[in-house]
Design goal:
CATH architecture: Distorted Sandwich
CATH class: Mainly Beta
Structural class: mainly beta
Distance between the termini: 11 Å
CATH superfamily: Glucose Permease (Domain IIA)
Number of helices: 0
Bound molecules: zinc ion
Largest sheet: 10 strands, antiparallel
Helix content: under 10%
Oligomer: single chain
Number of strands: 14
Shape: globular
Mean pLDDT: 86
Low-confidence stretches: 1-26
């Protein structure tokens, strides 16, 4: 178990949270992550018969920074890696975290907002620079929290946005990336 203590978050689909399930500013990540029921999850990590991801740890320690692996109450609808569509195989550079209705997304770690705006395909997108070459990207958002703009500083666990389906998304989810030196890595397998 990590030294940080993640709060337990109910993973029930459809029920939209009316209040954030954590205190703003407190490091936060989904405590136990599941594969979404009823869908084929590409690149699915090893899971139990009940879809719980095996050997999941809520935080990745990367270059001494604790980064949330799932910064929204959600289930995995697609994981990191090559993903076949009907026409081609594309590389999926992040983790798709399905939320049903729009939900609060928190900063996976503290840092400075390096990008806030529309990005081709990604829709409304945020990028946070955590220092030491570590960054996180949040895509397909529906809106940003007050005060969230390029150059602003955010604390780990602070609400930064809500999930949506902007860009090329077909369902309300967060496309979440962890980047090291500008390269997206597997959020579930990178770090200690
Ligand atoms: Zn995605």
């Amino acid at each position: 178990m990590p030294r940080l203590r993640p709060l337990l978050v109910a993973l029930s689909l459809g029920a939209c949270a009316t209040a954030p399930p954590y205190a703003p500013g407190e490091p936060w990540s989904v405590a136990a992550l599941e594969l979404c029921p009823g869908v084929h999850v590409s690149n699915a990590p090893a899971a139990t018969d009940y879809r719980g991801v095996i050997a999941y740890a809520p935080f990745a320690a990367i270059r001494g920074i604790s980064v949330a692996r799932a910064p929204v109450a959600s289930c995995i609808s697609s994981a990191y890696g090559p993903r076949a569509t009907s026409r081609r195989v594309a590389f999926h550079s992040g983790l798709d975290l399905y939320t049903g209705a729009p939900r609060d997304v928190v900063a996976g770690a503290g840092g400075k907002i390096a990008f806030a705006g529309d990005q081709r395909g990604y829709g409304l997108t945020l990028m946070i620079d955590h220092g030491r070459g570590v960054a996180t990207r949040y895509a397909h958002l529906s809106d940003l929290a007050p005060g969230v703009r390029k150059g602003a500083t955010v604390a780990a666990g602070a609400v930064i946005a809500r999930t949506g389906r902007s860009g090329n998304a077909t369902a309300v989810h967060l496309h979440y990336e962890i980047l090291i030196d500008g390269r997206a890595v597997d959020p579930l397998k990178t770090g200690d």
